Structure formats: structure tokens, C-alpha cells
Amino acid sequence: MSDINPVPGPATIIPPSRWRRTGRLLLPALVVSVVYFLFIGYPPLRLLALVQSGAQGADWQPGTLILLTVLVLPILLRLAAEWLPGAAGRTLAAAVMTWFGIAFVAFLPVAGFDLIDTVASVVAVPLPRPLSGWVLLAIVLLLTVVGLVNAQRLVVREIEVAVPVELSAQVGGTRLVQVSDVHVGSRSGRFLDRIVHRVNALPADVVLITGDLVDFANVAQEELASLARLRAPVFFAIGNHERYVDLEAICTRLTNLGVRVLRNAAVEYGALQIIGIDDADPRTQVGRVLPYLMPDPQRYRVLMYHRPDGAQDAADWGVHLMLCGHTHNGQIVPFQLLVRRVFPRICGVYRLGPLTLHVSPGTGTWGPVLRLGSRCEITRITLV
Questions:
Q1: Which of 66, 92, 207, 297 is 20 to 30 A removed from 158 (C-alpha atoms)?
Q2: From the centroid of its chain, how far is CA 324?
């Protein structure tokens, strides 16, 4: 008798039922709808109900027009922004996204109030209306103003990074300026002008832009023209948002303005070897690209990579300083908690043996023009 089993025939594939297929489509839509209502719809509607309530706590009910304005109009305006040309569309998109941000900021105070009010009502001491609503509204307005102002402030952070003894004579005292996540498109060319003015006020030997400089298609070269006024040489590595829009056109515009675009490439600049790696979703990107490049043992090696991934691969290759961005340090509290789960090295300086990793909180903002619990930062790194 043969010990060889017969080759099995082709497996019978049972197609999923119509109900299962429908469920696969409806479940994501349901989750998105619930999240949208919870964070975007519930806070403003609840605030309206509280300020409109009578002294006895009689609940106010929104009419159809109010519901459509709060829940549907923002989505329609955001879709309309995609069809409007140039700056008009981008301004409308930023306004809608900022409204979403304000609603999200309102969520914690409103949800906290409802939790406390529920407990208080159990002991027959409900919180007073409409006074509670007006207090909550004042808190949300204060947080909004702080967030709007904070999104416009540019903070310069100074960092010193020790270099290997054998390279200290060549690179000691070199000053690098990192700019990241400006998001021209969501932010205006005027905001970029302010960044350039601030960078030029710093003595710097080189400027390194670690991605997400642009986040809308068809951002004209004129809106980026202030980059040509930077007094130090400028190097750039792409981020995810450049990939999402007109990447090749963006790189051409930057090159025309004198910016050196590094795409999976390394160049020598004085005593520095500067490497730029294209952003990619897989966490293995740094480890995949670096073996194709040759480390220069005579130079201090600086890697620009948009996301704080692949630091160990960079250290193993011989990178001394790795500069990243992408996380925005959460931008709006408490997003830090979620972002930190994806990127544990969320912001600041980290050391992995001979490698120093710096993760910028970003110089601009994406989506809402708001920052709470984070800041817009230009980082100057002095090699010592």
C-alpha cells in the first residue's frame, strides 16, 4: 500500500452570505457615524440644550434646522471645499476642520459635566440650568482661544547633541535647524513666511525639513517662495502628505526654490553626511532603504525620515542623529494618548546607543488650526 496521500481536489469556496457582505459594509459606516456624532455632534447640541434649558431643568429639543446645521452642514462644506479652486477651497477646508477641532475640544468638558450631573441627580441635587451651560460654554470658548493662539505661536527649542570624540573637531559647534509638518495648504504661505523669518533670525549652518511641508495639491510655487530666502542651505525629505497629493510637482517646485530634495539618497555637506528617506507606511522602510546607501566614516551622519520608525535600523547602519516629525505630539489633548500607542517615541529626544533621535512636535498644524497640550516648534540642534 502506498504511503503517499492522494492530491486533494480544489477546495470548495463558499461565498459569504448577502447578510455578511452587507454587515461588512455597514459596520465601518456605523462606527464612523457613532464617532462623528459623539465627538462632533453631541458637544454643540448638548451645549445648546443646556443654555436653552429653563431654570427647572426642562430640556430643550433641537429642531430639524438645528440638527441639519450641526450634523450635516459641516460635511457638505468640507466636500464643497474640494471643488473650490485654490486658496478659497483650502480656507474653507481649514475653517470646517477647525470647527471639528472645537467640537472635539468641547467633548471632554461636556461629557464630564454630564457624568457629574448624572451622579448629582441620583442624590436629587441636579446641577443648575442654564447657569451650567453658560459656564461650560465659557470654558469651551477659553480653550478655543488658547488653542487658536497657540497654533500661531512659533517656539524655538534649543538642543545640544554630543558627537563622537573622533568627529568633534570637524562638526563641533555646527548648528542644525529642524522644521517639520508645516502643512502649507492647511496653513497659508504667510505662515511659512513667518517660519522663514524666524529661522533666519537664528544663526544656523543648515536647515532640515522633515516632511509634510505641503498637504494640498496645486500649492503654487509662489506660496512656497519664501523658502528661497533662507540663508542656510536647505534639505528636504518627503512626508506622507506629499505622497497623498502631487508629489513630483512639489519636489520640482522645491528644487526650483533651491531646496535640495533627498529621496532615498545621501549627500555630503561639509563634515556632514545628510540622508533623506522617503516616507512609507511599513515600519521596515528605514531598514529596507539604508543598506543601499554607504555610510561615510569620515562624516557625522544625519538621517531625515518623516515618521519616528526604524530608529534601531538607523543606529545599526551608523546614523548619529535621526530627525523625525509626523506625530504633532498629538496636537490636541488628549490625542497624545492615542498617538503614543502608535508611536511610543512621540516627541522629544531619545537615545539608542550611539544614535540620538529627535521627534519634532511639528512647526505647523494639520486639520484644525488649533493646538492644546502641544506647540508649534522650530528646533535648533547644536552639535557639541
A1: 297
A2: 12
| Domain limit, last residue, from 97, 124, 149 | 149
Are 136 and 212 members of one domain?
A: no
pLDDT value at 15 more than 60: no
Q: In terms of residue numbers, what domain contains 33?
A: 18-149
**Taking the CB of residue 210, how many other CB atoms lie within 10 A of it?**
32
- In angstroms, rounded to a whole number, what is the distance separating the alpha carbons of residues 116 and 110? 10
pTM score, two decimals? 0.89
Cα–Cα dist 137/309, whole Å: 40
pLDDT digits (tens, 9 = 90+) for 78-123: 999 988 888 899 999 999 999 999 999 999 999 999 999 999 888 8
Q: Do the domain assignments include residue 320?
A: yes
Q: Which of 276, 341, 343 is CA-nearest to residue 307?
A: 343
To 10 degrees, what angle do helices 73-83 and 86-122 make?
160
Q: How many structural domains compose the chain? A: 2
Q: How many angstroms separate the CA atoms of 375 and 356, rounded?
A: 22
C-alpha cell at 154: 512659533
What is the C-alpha separation between 354 and 170, in angstroms, rounded? Answer: 18
Q: Which of 149, 184, 207 is the last residue of a domain?
A: 149
Both 215 and 315 in one domain: the answer is yes
- Euclidean distance between CA atoms 368 and 147, whole angstroms: 10
Residue 9 lies inside a defined structural domain of this protein:
no
What is the per-residue pLDDT across 170-196, written as a single tens digit (0 to 9) for each?
A: 999 999 999 999 999 999 999 999 999
Residue type, 193: D
Residues 125 and 192 in one domain: no
Question: Integer distance in angstroms from the first to the last C-alpha of the chain?
Answer: 78
SS3 218: coil
Q: Does one domain contain both 362 and 265?
A: yes
**Distance (Å, whole) CA 161 – CA 321:** 8
**Closest to 381 measured CA to CA, from 272, 296, 298:** 272
| SS3 category, 253 | helix
List helix spans (H) across 187-329.
189-200, 240-244, 247-256, 285-289, 311-317
Residue 87 one-letter amino acid: A
